[in-house]
Amino acid sequence: MKIVIIGGVAAGAKAAAKIKRLLPDSEVSIYTDDTHVSYSACGLPYYIEGNFADYTSLLVRSVEEFNTSGIDVYLESKVEKILPAQQQVLVCNKKHAFLVDYDKLIIATGARPIIPNIAGVKDYKNVYSLRKIEDGIAIRNKMLESKRAVVIGSGFIGLELLEAFVRNGLFVDLIEKNDRIMPSFDTDMSELIRQRLDQSNDNNFEIHTSEIVTEILGENGVATGVKTLSGKYMPTDIVILSVGIKPNSEIARDAGIVIGDTGAIRVNKLMQTSIENIYACGDCCEERHLISGNYVWVPLGSTANKEGEYAALNAAGVYSEFEGVLGSSVTRCLNTTMSMTGLTEAQALEFGYTPVFAIVSKTDKVAYMPNVGEITLKVMADKASGLLLGGQAVGSIGADKRINALATALLGRLTVQEFKRNDLTYSPPFSPTIDPLLTAMSILCKKVSRPC
Amino acid sequence: MKIVIIGGVAAGAKAAAKIKRLLPDSEVSIYTDDTHVSYSACGLPYYIEGNFADYTSLLVRSVEEFNTSGIDVYLESKVEKILPAQQQVLVCNKKHAFLVDYDKLIIATGARPIIPNIAGVKDYKNVYSLRKIEDGIAIRNKMLESKRAVVIGSGFIGLELLEAFVRNGLFVDLIEKNDRIMPSFDTDMSELIRQRLDQSNDNNFEIHTSEIVTEILGENGVATGVKTLSGKYMPTDIVILSVGIKPNSEIARDAGIVIGDTGAIRVNKLMQTSIENIYACGDCCEERHLISGNYVWVPLGSTANKEGEYAALNAAGVYSEFEGVLGSSVTRCLNTTMSMTGLTEAQALEFGYTPVFAIVSKTDKVAYMPNVGEITLKVMADKASGLLLGGQAVGSIGADKRINALATALLGRLTVQEFKRNDLTYSPPFSPTIDPLLTAMSILCKKVSRPC
Asked: Could you tell me if B399 and B331 are in contact, meaning their C-beta atoms sit under 8 angstroms apart?
C-alpha cells in the first residue's frame, strides 16, 4: 500500500505518523513545498517575541525522525497536479519533475496568507506575512533592527505580532479596514478587546480602524512607510500583512474534487473528498459545525491535528467519523486573553436561531485576593429551546478555560437550564463564589422561553 | 409571613437575601450564635496568610445592609430548640431566652470542626481550629509572634494553613493519621500532591503521615509541643486542629427531623426536611450526587450558596428543584493546585461502577513557552458504558479549570466516546496542542468496553 501525503505541517505530519503506526508495512511519503516539516506554526509569534531562543523548539518531528520510523519526507517538492484516474501525483522539485503512484492520497496543503491588493505590496523585501518557519525567522531578524512596524489586519496573527513588536520596544501602527479589531469576535466583545488594549497602551502602539492602506512606499527595495485612504502616512521599518488566510484548495479543484462554498475542500465525516481514495485534512478542508451542522472553514492547529488523525484512520481502513468542530479558539495580546467557542452572533442568525445573550463582567478570583483580574463573558443561547449556542470571553488569564467548560456544554448539547445546575469548583484564589459562567446562565434563564 | 433562618454565614445569608427579594412583605430574621454574619469563610486561610490586610474584606453583607433591606439579624443568639408543633424556635442570647414564631423555618446551621480526642486538646489557648472570623483573627495574631506550628490533619484547611504559615516564615509540622495527605483525593493523586509539596519544601515544613498525636503538652495554659504515638515530640508555638468537620444537625435531630446516613440533615430536591415548613441548606444538610444519585455530604461554600437560593425559592413558594452536586472542589498549597469533581475511586466502587482510569501528565502550555508548569489529570469512566464518573487534577495554575470542563461533561452525562470529540481551545501560551483532557480520553477509549 502506497500512501502519499501532500503537505507536512500539522495535519499532514500527524496523518503520516498515525498511518505508519496503523499500517507498518505501507509506504508513506510526505511531499511538501515547504523547507520544514512538522512544526508548530502557532508558536511563530512567540518565537518572534523572544519567548524562547531557538526556532528549532518549534519543530515537532525532524526529517530524520520521520525517516527512522519509515516515512519518506520530500522537502521543497511541490505537488503540481493530482491525476485521480492514474492514481498519481506530479511532483516538481528544483531539479526535475516526476510522477508518484498512490493507493491512498491525503491532501494536507494547508492555507496561505491573503496578499491584499495594495500598491507596492510586492516591491519591498521588508514586507512580510507570517506562515512558515522562514517567515518567522525573517520577521524576528528584521524586528531586532527596527524601531517602528506597521501591521495590516487585526486578527489573531495581527494582535500576536502587535504584542511581539511592542514587547521588543517597537512602536506599532495597527491598521484594520473594519470598524473594529479582532472582527471574528462579536461586535461588543471586539470593542471590549479594543478597550483593554487601549488601557494597556503605554504610547507604544496606535490602532487605526476603518482605515485602508492604499500604498506601500519605499526606496531601493525597502519599504519606509504606508499611505492610507484617509490620507495618513505612517513611517515604518517593517510591514506585516495579516489580513487573513485562504485554503490551498486549488490543486484539489483542478483535479475535479468538490470544493465547498467556503472555498476549502469538502470532505465527509471520514475525511474523504469527492474522489475515491483521496482524503483531505487540516487548513485546506472544510468541517461541519457541531452546533448547526453547517459546513464551516475553521483553520486551526488543534483541528488540523485531529483531522490528520481521522484521515489516517480512515485511509488505513479503520472507520472513524470526525463529527466536526465548535471553532474553539484562544489567543492573547499583551495582558488580554480572548477566547471563543461555538457560533458567533452573526452565525447564529445566519443559521436560523433566535439568539439571546448574557454578558457578565466579574473578577477572576474573589475580589479581596491579590492580583485580581477581570473576565467578561458573553454566552449565547437559542431563545426558543434554551440550547447553548456559543460564547466568548475577554479578560485576564483563565478567560479561555471558561470557554472550554462552555465548549464541553456545546458538545453535550446542554441547555441554559441544564448548565445552570453545574457544580463548578470554587476557592478564593481561583474564581468568585459564583463563577461568571453560572452568573451568565442565571441571566439567560430569564431570557429564554422555556422556564428555568 | 414570618420566615426564620438559623445561621447566617453562606447558605443562611443567601437564603435571607433571596427570600426578602421574592417576598418583600415577609418578615425575615436571621438568628445566629456567630459574632458575624454573611462572610467568606473560605477566605480565612488567605487572610491569615496575609493576602489582604483587613478581615473585613471577608464580610459580604453587613448587619446594617441586611437591616436596610428589611432583614433582622440577631448575632450571638443561639437557637437552642425547634418546636415544630408550635412552629416556634427557642432562642438564647447572653441575657435571656425567648420564643420566636415562624411560618417557614430555614436551618442553615453549618458545620463545626471535629475536636480530636487528644490529651490536653482543651487545655491551651494556642490550640485552634479554623471556622469563624474570630478563629481567623486569633490564628493570624498568634502566627505573627510564632516560629513553629503543628497542624493536625492534612485536608483542605490543613494544607491551606501549611501554606499560610510557611509563607509567613514559620516551620510547620503537618501530622496526618492516614498514610497519605489530602485523603479525600484518590491514593495516587494524594501521593502526587505529596511529591509536589516535597519538591517545593525549602526545609520549612515536615510532613508526618501515619502519625497520631496523643498529647498536647504545655504550661500556664500555653501549648509548647505535641507528642505522637510513635514517640516523637514536636515543639510548637501554635497548634491547629484540622482533622475535619461535622454537620450541626443535632438541633434538627432533636426536633424529630430525619437525619441521613452521612449525619447531615436529609432534604428533598426542594430543600424540604421531613417536617413541614422546615427547610435546610448549606453545610448542615446532605445533597444528592448528580452521578450516582446517592446521598452525600459535600460541605462547600459554592454548594451552600446555591442551596440557600433553592431553599429560599421553595420556601417562598417558587417550585425549584435542586438536582444535586458533583462535589467539585479546588484549593492550592504553595505552588500546587489540586482539584476534583465527580466520584472518587472509592465512591465509584461503593456505588457499583467498574471504574477504569487514565492518568496523564502534561505541560500546561506548549513546552517551548516560558514558565511551563505540569498538570497531572486523572479521569475515571465506567468500563461498561463509558460514562464519565469523575476526575482529579494536580499541578500548576489551570489544573482546576480542566476539572470545570470535566464537571460540565459529568453534568451532561457524557461518555468518554463523546468527550473525545470535544473541541477545546488551543494556543501555545494556554495549553499543549492536545489538551490533557483529550489525551486522557484517548487512553480511556482503549479501556472501556464500548468502542470509540
From this structure: no
Q: pLDDT 10s digit of each residue in chain A, 452 long? A: 999 999 999 999 999 999 999 999 999 999 999 999 999 999 999 999 999 999 999 999 999 999 999 999 999 999 999 999 999 999 999 999 999 999 999 999 999 999 999 999 999 999 999 999 999 999 999 999 999 999 999 999 999 999 999 999 999 999 999 999 999 999 999 999 999 999 999 999 999 999 999 999 999 999 999 999 999 999 999 999 999 999 999 999 999 999 999 999 999 999 999 999 999 999 999 999 999 999 999 999 999 999 999 999 999 999 999 999 999 999 999 999 999 999 999 999 999 999 999 999 999 999 999 999 999 999 999 999 999 999 999 999 878 889 999 999 999 999 999 999 999 999 999 999 899 999 999 999 999 997 77
Q: Which of A78-115 are b and which e, b meaning 16 or more Cβ less than 10 Å from the residue's Cβ?
A: bbeebebeebbbbbbeeeeeeebebebbbbbbbbebee
* Whether A328 and B425 lie within 8 Å, measured CB to CB: yes
Q: Are B423 and A302 a contacting pair at CB < 8 A?
A: yes
Residues from chain B contacting residue A370 (CB–CB below 8 Å): 51-52
- String of DSSP letters for A264-325: SBP--TT-B-SSTTEEE-GGGB-EEBTTT--EE----HHHHHHHHHHHHHHHTT-------B
Cross-strand pairs, B280: B107
**Mean pLDDT across chain B:** 97
Classify residue A230 by burial, with Cβ atoms within 10 Å: 0-12, 13-18, 19+: exposed
* A333 is annotated as an active-site residue: no
Residues 44-73 of B with CB under 8 A from A: 46, 51-52, 57-58
Give the closest residue to A152 by CA, choosing from A70, A252, A234, A220: A234
> HSE (CB half, 13 Å, CA atoms) of A273?
29
Q: Which of A381, A389, A354, A390 shows the shortest CA–CA distance to A444?
A: A381
Q: What is the pLDDT of residue A451?
A: 74
Contact residues on chain A for B42, CB-CB shorter than 8 A: 366, 426-428, 433
What number of other Cβ atoms are within 10 A of residue A206's Cβ? 12
- Answer yes or no: do B412 and A412 touch at CB < 8 A: yes
CA distance B369 to chain A (A): 6
**Distance, CA of A248 to CA of A98 (rounded, Å):** 21
- β-pairing verdict for A78-83 and B336-342: unpaired
Please indicate if any CB of chain B lies within 8 Å of the CB of A145.
Answer: no
CB contact (8 A) between residue A408 and residue B421 = no
Q: Which positions of B are catalytic? A: 42
Minimum distance, in Å, between the CA of residue A63 and any CA atom of chain B = 20
Query: How crowded is residue B447: how many other Cβ atoms within 10 Å of its Cβ?
Result: 15
How far is A427 from chain B, CA to nearest CA, in Å? 6
Residue B398, pLDDT above cutoff 80: no
**Among A346, A328, A451, A271, which Cα is nearest to B320's?**
A451
